Amino acid sequence: MSTADLPALNAQFAIPGHVSFREGPGGLVVAMVGNSLATATIALQGAHVMTWAPRKQRPVIWLSKFAKFAPGKSIRGGVPVCWPWFGAHATEAKFPGHGFARTVQWEVVSTEALRDGATRLTFRIVQDEATRAQWPQASEALNVVTVGKALEIALVTRNTGSAPFTLGDAFHTYFEVSDIRDCRIHGLGSCPYLDKVDGGKKKQQVGPVAIGEEVDRIYLDSVADVLIDDPGYQRRIRVSKRGSRSSVVWNPWIEKAAKMGDFGPDGYLNMVCVESTNAADDVVQIPAGGEHRLWVRYSIEPLD
Question: Any idea which residues carry the catalytic annotation?
Fold first, then answer.
């Protein structure tokens, strides 16, 4: 999708008072969503929700001030879609980590103004020779984004072939916080986790998650809502999900963030990734003709 397609895109899918399409940073085509409930921006590359904020509220989704925008490059922040595998590819080291979905084009399938004032956009991944070389399975992937008082996203994978396949996927969501050192993450206290900072050792979470160093953990048996309590912003971010039994908590901290080059000097303090995933042993088997739906809902509440 190029900026030359903007007139046709707006003619077919723009909805006054809800959504329009324009050229964004780095020449990427972006859906600008604004309704009575919230605002959001979504890049068609990756069907990537870059920002979301309920009206009269500060942003909930973190986008790095130093993010780099370019065709074929992942965006630092927002809600990257990891598909059709999570982490490193099982057999091909040269294939991109977390799959290719976040760096390829998605097409707009539909836009809709909902009765409650929210806006729904549906995107479909565009597969070509390059993607099929990495993922030969016959499949279709849709990303359905509903922008309202809450942000709901559904990643729908359909097996359109005659044989089953194994899928890993995730929403690699970056949440904006006042200072991660003061925040506490609840809802994972009974979960074992794989500590990727400590060589993948299996450990047990006790109490809320506090972050004061690099954290990269895959929480297993995670199905409950995850709550990010942020006293600095006096709010709680609630992460609800379906179609997932694992969650990742990630913050690169000082040294790793500096090496990445697109966090800025203190960006790591104002974000935390709480990812709803099908990762580690929580991969999905999709039979021929079947589908899998990974669904999340992000909302905010006042902190008690």
Answer: 172, 275
